[in-house]
Recover the amino acids of this structure.
């Protein structure tokens, strides 16, 4: 795919218009991670390690909720692009019911896992009780986290990027307020309680804005019968993503298991470095959300050329922005860690390992945004396989070889190498994917969506 530089200013403007609110949403989400890390970090390395130990397991369950959201929200983007708002609302209804059932089962699983999980991960006995308590609160939060993610995605795919940004900013403020109340009294458990309560409030507001206020998606008195095609399409899009997220986050759990024997300082440093690095990929996920919306709506309208153009523009912008944020973090990360933890040993190790991974930010940006663009076109199966092979073969394989010799830096060398490989794979898939044309061939005049 070659991009004609003439006449792309309107597309760049549209990408920026949708990306900026999405980036602001990412900022507030990441701010919550910083707030939790800083407020818990003040309690000491063991408290931080208690949360860091189960963080990969929270990502694992969150990955499934993300796949559910993608399976339905991409269909909404296609129907909005095809000017079939009634069908988009049908998808919203089916998505809400499916998400409620899925997140309920995940919540039950999380509750059952919360007790033995820290032991399974090889955590030090001194931090297991706090880890279990934190994961227990996370499990209670899952249905509301799913509700927030799903309705936020629906609004974004309908072109409303502002509402999710505002409400997630509100959640950030509420998180600070509730953490200030609960952490001094309950410690690590209080951090989980504060985040959960903030999520509950905002998820209900997000659902109200989507289902009762949005002009295109709000519920109306109209017939909506069960449509198996909606669920089949959601499975087609979401199942590969769910398998990918489960397998990739299982790899994160495996990585935690590799790191756990290194001790509380290494676990805490790893957790803080991951939190600090999240600020760097904030633009990538924001632009990736815009890519999913713009590509999905262009594909739904049958405009293959415009869909490809948006894919290229978004991917280039994602790489450029993440290069910039990576350079800034390379310089300022010691100051960031001063805010997150008072422990000097944790600060030094966290800065050391983070600077290793920051070298991979440009290709990491490509992998994030290209995946978002491919998701908008309905291409999730092959990218998922590429991601799985990359993280399990490259990252975990290298980690097993390097951590024993180099300690925590060995894990981050493996991570940086894998992110570069993943970026190249996603770039290749973006250039060779046939899903744009396949949609055009398969499209029906009435209400085709995939």
């Amino acid at each position: 795919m070659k991009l004609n530089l003439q006449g792309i200013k309107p597309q760049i403007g549209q990408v920026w218009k949708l990306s900026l609110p999405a980036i602001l949403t990412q900022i507030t989400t990441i701010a919550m991670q910083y707030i939790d890390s800083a407020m818990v970090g003040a309690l000491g390395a063991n408290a931080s390690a208690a949360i860091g130990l189960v963080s990969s397991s929270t990502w694992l369950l969150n990955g499934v909720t993300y796949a559910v959201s993608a399976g339905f929200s991409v269909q909404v983007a296609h129907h909005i692009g095809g000017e079939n708002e009634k069908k988009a609302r049908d998808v919203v209804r089916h998505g809400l019911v499916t998400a409620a059932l899925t997140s309920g089962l995940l919540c039950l699983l999380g509750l059952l896992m919360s007790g033995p999980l820290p032991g399974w991960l090889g955590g030090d006995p001194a931090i297991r009780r706090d880890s279990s308590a934190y994961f227990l609160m996370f499990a209670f939060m899952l249905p509301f986290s799913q509700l927030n993610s799903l309705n936020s995605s629906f609004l974004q795919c309908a072109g409303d990027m502002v509402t999710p940004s505002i409400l997630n900013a509100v959640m950030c403020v509420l998180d600070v307020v509730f953490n200030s109340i609960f952490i001094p009294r309950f410690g690590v458990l209080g951090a989980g309680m504060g985040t959960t309560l903030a999520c509950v409030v905002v998820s209900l507001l997000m659902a109200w804005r989507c289902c009762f206020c949005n002009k295109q998606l709000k519920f109306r008195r109209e017939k909506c019968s069960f449509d198996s095609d909606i669920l089949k399409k959601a499975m087609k899009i979401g199942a590969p993503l769910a398998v990918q997220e489960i397998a990739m986050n299982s790899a994160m759990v495996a990585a935690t298991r590799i790191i756990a024997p290194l001790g509380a300082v290494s676990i805490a440093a790893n957790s803080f470095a991951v939190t600090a690095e999240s600020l760097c990929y904030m633009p990538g996920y924001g632009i990736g959300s815009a890519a999913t919306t713009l590509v999905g709506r262009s594909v739904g309208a049958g405009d293959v050329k415009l869909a490809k153009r948006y894919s290229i523009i978004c991917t280039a912008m994602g790489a450029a922005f993440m290069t910039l944020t990576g350079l800034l973090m390379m310089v300022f990360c010691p100051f960031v860690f001063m805010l997150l933890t008072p422990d000097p040993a944790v600060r030094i190790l966290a800065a050391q390992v983070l600077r290793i991974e920051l070298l991979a930010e440009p290709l990491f940006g490509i992998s994030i945004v290209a995946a978002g663009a491919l998701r908008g076109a309905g291409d999730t199966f092959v990218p998922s396989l590429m991601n799985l092979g990359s993280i399990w073969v490259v990252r975990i394989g290298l980690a097993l070889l390097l951590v024993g010799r180099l300690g925590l830096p060995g894990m981050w060398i493996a991570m940086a190498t894998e992110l570069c490989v993943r970026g190249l794979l996603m770039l290749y898939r973006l250039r060779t994917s046939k899903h744009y044309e396949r949609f055009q061939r398969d499209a029906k005049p009435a209400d085709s969506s995939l």
Notes: Residues 9-442 form one domain. The CA atoms of residues 402 and 410 lie 5 Å apart. The chain has a mean pLDDT of 86.
